[in-house]
Design a protein that fits this description.
NADP, HMG_CoA_Rdtase_NAD(P)-bd_sf, globular, 16 helices, 10 strands, 3-hydroxy-3-methylglutaryl-coenzyme A Reductase, Chain A, domain 2, EC 1.1.1.34, HMG_CoA_Rdtase_cat_sf, 10-stranded mixed beta sheet, oxidoreductase
Length: 419
Amino acid sequence: MPKVNLHKRDYLTSIDKDLTLTEFDAKLSPKQHTPSRKVNRSPYLTARNVDYRWGILDNSEAKSQLLDPHTKSQMDSYSKNIEFFIGTLKMPIGTAGPLRVNGLFAQGDFQVPLATTEAALVASYNRGANLITACGGASAMLLNEGVTRTPGFAFKSLIEAGKFVAWLVTQFDHFKQLAESTTSHGKLSDINVNIEGNHVYLVFEYLTGDASGQNMVTIATNVVFDYIMTHTPVEPDYAFLDGNLSGDKKANSQTLRSVRGKKVTAEVLIPARLVEKYLHTTPKKMAQFGQMTTVGGALSGTIGINAHYANALAALYIACGQDAACVAESAIGMTRMEVTDAGELYASVTLPNLMVGTVGGGTGLPSQKACLDLLGLHGTGNSQALAEVAASLCLAGELSIVGAFCAGHFSNAHHKLAR
């Protein structure tokens, strides 16, 4: 059946109704007048620089909100995490839980801090968490770890590319020594070679300990990259530190079968009576919803199938000092719901791209450390547990939102809580 457009309106066709061609040209043309004074004279965080910036911004009301006395007293804490500092942003934080996790690393009942401005979100995750806990908890398993950086090299021919690879595969031990000389935590575990015509892409895979690790692997790979460019017997026409094969901060399908960051799966088995009690629907209807939305996801070209991992991960990442932009890749994964022979609901999630850490980055900032402390997961030895909690949280959210759609409560919940 052909696609039917019930209503179609080209926005640009309305321009001539509002603007003359001269006005249109004037709005979009470059402007050469002298710009206003630069707020960003120096990137460094000092009291003098902060005062200078606010002197240019000249907005006392905004300053009172962003540079309050408490923030001012903690300014030094932010010096390694931000440039051109002017203050801090306050976001509401709620907790979802208790969320019981029975993992290889995460064990116990967790109150999960979520930073968001979206009404109904924390309530939804709280409902799912309580359902999981009532069932005895989610079983969670860390499956794999690894963070990548992917240099790319261009040669004149496939012959040159082949000669380059023939030399390169003899150098792993030296590359490993060079890479690991830059970090006390990172370990180069493998290098995969991908040849595409006269281009060569190298996938450097690292273990990064309890750090999320993007900066760590970039610095380590750069040292090896410089060595390659200096010592290769076949000089490339051009080369770059990353050839965009890593999937860094981009939705990508390759990690569905491999890993970037931490790969975790979590599951729960829910009796029908608890599905009815907490979600006001049935296992059969939830499984039917899963089947229909899996086909819908395939029709739309979705990478993986899930309802809204991004909601959980964005709120958790912001609260706990993770790199929020990594939600673009971390929110890839598979949700599955089935009815067992006993009439129970089996639900599972698998997330191959969880970029989380409990040291480094923003994890040591005052508010973010406080959130990790609420979880009991700040510091060395806790990143694997944080990944298992994150996956279990996503499972809670999937159960709650699917239940809401099946019970016809989704719109009503947003209407009630958002207004």
